[in-house]
Amino acid sequence: MARIWIDLTTSIRWRRPPVGIVRVEREFAAHCLAHEPGVAFCEIDADGEYRVLSESRAREVLADAWCRSGPVATVSAAAPAPDAPRSRVQRTFDWLAARGPRLVPAAAYPLLRDLGRVLAEHHAAWLRHRATRRARPAPPTPAPVATQRSPAVQPAAGDLFFSIGLQWHHGAIHAYRLAKRTRVRVIEACYDTIPIDFPEYAGSAKQPFAEHFTCIAHTADLVFAISDTTSADLRAFYQRVGVQQVPPIRTVHLATPETHGHADADALEPDERAVLERLRGDYVLYVSTFETRKNHRMLLQVWKELHRTRGEACPLLVIVGMFGWGVNDLWAEMQASEVWGAGRIVLLHHVSDALLAHLYRGCAFTVFPSVYEGWGLAATESLAYGKLAITSDAPALREATQGLCPSIHPFDYPRWLSEISHWLDDRDARAEAESRIRASYQPRHWRDFARELLAAAKELR
């Protein structure tokens, strides 16, 4: 019987609340640990060698505590903290700002003033970070351990090797070498081809991604795609670049994230309860990394108009997610806007699953205006909580939400403003939509995802 091997490198290196790809690897590994006797785990070391992980180490990595990264962080202008004493560096910048016009040429002063502000902000952020680290209890001193490395993996020919994390970071070439050396059967993943098809939203990732997918074409015995959309996109890429032998590509839809229906507010950490205390009244929720492709700019424009026309009645926009790529200008624009100054936009980082459950249950509805997606876990999560999600018309989002959500072109500002206003104001329509979602949405559990992926892999010959 073929043994199952799972590369846990991504999960080991991820020490904050998991995003989609990390969650997939963790949930699949946890299912196999519980239900697949003899499953083995490994990680890639600095030399590109797969090293065996003990079962106890795998359990430690897959435990919820592995991904806790400190208290929830709230960023908004609604309730500024009392001013801390100015540091010596900050007082120096204050002095230069006051006397700069008399010390430097007039043409150069605006540039130096802005540079000083940036440096002062970075220095203040560093001071906050240092204070936070000092406030945390010191971790227990680990017991001395032997420095001997774990043995290299030795899978048998025909074993199943799952390499389904952030492999473009770790190097798909390692799985290629392992397959050539041992004749293990390799299962790779394709979550999306966005860096190739939409390079403007991925920085300099187009070439690394193209190389990655070309490499797995020569490595994988099976590639699982998370949606029919992603499967078609990967096939189209292989056709464009002329891959002669395309590996089997199988769509295995992702699961709906676990709902925490019985999460008790009293069980939350004090900082998490404080967040809920601030979110009174209607608010709209967007759960997504804060990056350019996720189209937060559209929401900012909509909320500017809602604040202009509604004033203090403007609802709160709550954005949950870490900072990503390409949003420096958007972040500056947001902080300079009147709607931000009025405290009607809040960013939350380091949000636990338990707190997220309360955020979903308490919101009026959710939004997901992303330009393009491979699936859309947060949109399905919204439906799992019985909440309406207004999404973009990206094909994968329509696929993931089972046709139950209003979908709008990501750049159609009038429609976004109209739809958000409608669902804010018409509570009866919102209740009817929620009732339809609860009756019609078909959630999919992680065990269903894991079983389907395992079945597809075990069919390999």
Radius of gyration: 24 Å
Number of helices: 20
CATH topology label of the largest domain: Rossmann fold
What is the top-level CATH class of the largest domain? Alpha Beta
Main sheet? 7 strands, mixed
User: Distance N terminus to C terminus?
Assistant: 13 Å
Structural class: alpha/beta
Write out the strand line-up for the largest beta sheet, numbering strands in chain order.
3-2-1-5-6-7-8
Low-pLDDT residue intervals, each spanning 5 or more residues: 79-84, 142-146
Q: Summarize this, please?
A:
This protein is α/β, with parallel strands linked by helices. The chain folds into 3 domains: 4-54 and 150-255 and 448-458, Glycogen Phosphorylase B (Rossmann fold), CATH 3.40.50.2000; 85-133; 265-443, Rossmann fold, CATH 3.40.50.2000. The protein is built from 20 helices and 14 strands.
Task: Outline the structure in words.
The protein is of the alpha/beta class and 461 residues long. The chain has three domains: 4-54 and 150-255 and 448-458, Rossmann fold (3-Layer(aba) Sandwich); 85-133; 265-443, Glycogen Phosphorylase B (Rossmann fold, 3-Layer(aba) Sandwich). It has 20 helices and 14 strands. The chain has helices at 9-13, 20-35, 55-62, 88-103, 109-135, 167-170, 173-182, 194-197, 206-217, 228-241, 270-278, 296-310, 328-336, 338-341, 353-362, 377-384, 395-400, 413-425, 427-440, 446-458; strands at residues 4-7, 40-44, 50-53, 73-75, 160-163, 185-190, 222-225, 249-251, 283-287, 316-320, 345-349, 365-368, 389-392, 407-408. A seven-stranded mixed beta sheet has the order 3-2-1-5-6-7-8, with helices on both faces. Helix 4 (88-103) packs antiparallel against helix 5 (109-135). It is globular.
